[in-house]
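Notes to self after the call with IL:
- keep both proteins in one doc
- input above output, always
- annotate only the second one for now

Protein 1:
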Amino acid sequence: MNHDPFDGLTEFLAVAEHKSFTLAATRLAVTPTAVSHAIKLLERRTGVLLFQRTTRRVALTEAGASLFARLRPAASEIDEALAVLSGFRDQPMGTLRLTAPRLSGALLMEPLIPLFREAYPQVTLDISLDDATVDLMAGGFDAGIRLGESIEKDMIAVRLTPDLQWSVVGSPAYFAKAGKPVIPEDLTRHECIGFRFSTSGSAHRWEFRRESRDFTVGVEGGVIVNDRRLLVAAARSGSGLAYACDLEIADELADGRLERVLQPFVPLSSALYLYFPSRTQTQPKLRAFIDLATRWIAEKGGLGRR
């Protein structure tokens, strides 16, 4: 019969430390008979007597003392390892892996990274910016950030932002040169800055709504980018019109470097949510990030100006 090489070692260590079968049984929450039986099986398996027993005392034999001397450091290391493991349950620590769309890089991640690291230095942030739909489990991520409409129903989702308002914007210099479109179809006669998603290679659609009907307009122009900051910068420079989220152009709208057009035709889109599988909801490192992020966003009034 095959035996587990660790059978009886827990009982052996307890008896050796307490020099008593009764005290060892109390520590292990078993009966003295069970402890005695485990020790007898260990001695039978090894072929070595480990304890000298009398009615008054229990003492290690020379072989038992040798085994105890070797096992005790290993047992201490196991206890320390389990103590560290319990730390993952009780306090934020370890690595928190997040996947988020590029849109959230400047809006959320840049300000949150230093705040989180200062508050939780025991946690390493591992952030991947990716516009594609990501399988959290397959990718080894603890959580993701995406538009609510793209999140699977079996995920737990925490709302981070209000519904997102998108706008068609241009610089005063561009409008002075090319005029302003009045209806979405006018965009076919304007220079429009395209945005291409890095992962899929597909273009971001310019979506509009008229009388409860959603539609898109095919746009063209001399600039196509795959970086949100470059998109905004190109619009600021007068290179054309951009279709951008108000959160990423809040400062430019506030100081007049960019102006909106076609606003009655641009609908709201879903908010950004942080989502995760139910199995991870109790992880302190994730809970800490959620609490800090939602608190910071609330203090910012839902992410108005940066």
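Protein 2 (the one to annotate):
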Amino acid sequence: MTESIAEMVIPGTYIEVRAEGLIGVGGIVTGNIGIVGTAARGPVGAVRTLSSLADAIDIYGLPDAFGAPRLTNTPLTLVRALQQAFEGGARTVLAVRAANLATGNDELPVAASFGVTRASDASAAFTLTAKGHLDRDKAPIANSSGTWGQDITVTTSTDAATGTHRLALSYRKQTEVFEAATLGDLRTAATASRLVDVSALTGAATGGPTPAKGPMTGGADGANVGVTDLADALGELENEPVNILLVAGEASKRVGNIVQGHLQRTLNEGRERIAILGVAADGSATDVGDVTDEAGALENDRVVLVAPGLVSGTDTLPASYTAAVVAGKLATLAPHVSLTNKSLPVTPSVRYSTGSVTTLLGAQVLVVREKFGNQVVRGITTSAPPFSQISVRRTVDYAKAGVRLGSDPYIGRLNNARVRAALQATLDGFLSQMVLDEMLTGYELSVTATRAQEIAGVCAVVMNLKPTFSIDFIRVTMNLE
């Protein structure tokens, strides 16, 4: 029989189970990073979950050289930023590749390729094309190959002693070697490659390949993305469980508006998150006017603005990559733990003077400086109080998520004293745990409904929360005698 007694006609035992007392608040995710950016391969506009840099490279390929990108003045951003985020401590990342698709057909040009020719007359035999990704039905995903094939080295040769023809493919630490007696058989053997697709054979199957060695060439990755392309990629993350948002390689001056729009939409849907952006220009040790001007255009308790950039090998990367390190570090911290004074595995590109740091803090910029290592000076948002501290913003978001999880199961249940008491017990259990975890120093909670509210289907929950704040300053008075 059902666990709710609707009628009693046939004699028997009818049991109603009231399970409200078993409702509790489950686990809440606090460290998921969402990121959009450009890459050498991978599906465009699709969310992929990553747990390591190796996962990122497998899906999105290696980044190009920052100082000499494949597309002039437009280096790839996604994997480069993911590297910084994982070095900062990121554990779960939801990534979306953005690309500027060709006008008219929403497709990028052909992927990187290598033409194998005949040794006898140098005529075309078959073409190797860098593989794209496959969907769940094992069908190729459009636009997923890009330029990653330019990192594949192709070698064709013939053993003079045995007459065996060889085709070798090398990518990072992976090598594939195919051997055959004829050009046609070599082409057939190469179809088993996990790196490339092989075209049909042109002409006779006899003979061998022209000896050659070199990388694949060509392809396009759509790295010259516009703001609309980035907005489309951000849209893919709106329904995902993201807590920290990044736009790889892009400054707040360019993407600040679309990011704030994204944050507002996700807030309305109950998917609160914080965006961490970098400044466009670092300024110098004594001149931070450009930084403060950019900061003046932002005032949002869900946006963090980071300066300066960072040094990576021989390259100086913009502050958006420092933002990725900050995001990775933030993902490792509980919501109530402040970023203030936390060390980062990064070398700042500018060492600001004390006066410049003071100016930047006054403009609500999160500054990374060298002091006992490289540290965050203060973990602040671009907003004035009450949500100037990132930790307070995250703590309140955590409380909202928990209250939502605890309250939603009561929707549709009876609006009477028994059920309201159960709801209060559920929320009380969650909030008391926040006190034990030191997220709150205290709270007050009431769950009520007047008769008019009962008729309207309303249950009123009022809570007064006292978030735990961090120590930003230690004031010492020394009395000497």
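Annotation: The chain has eleven helices and 19 strands. The first strand starts at residue 33 and ends at 37.
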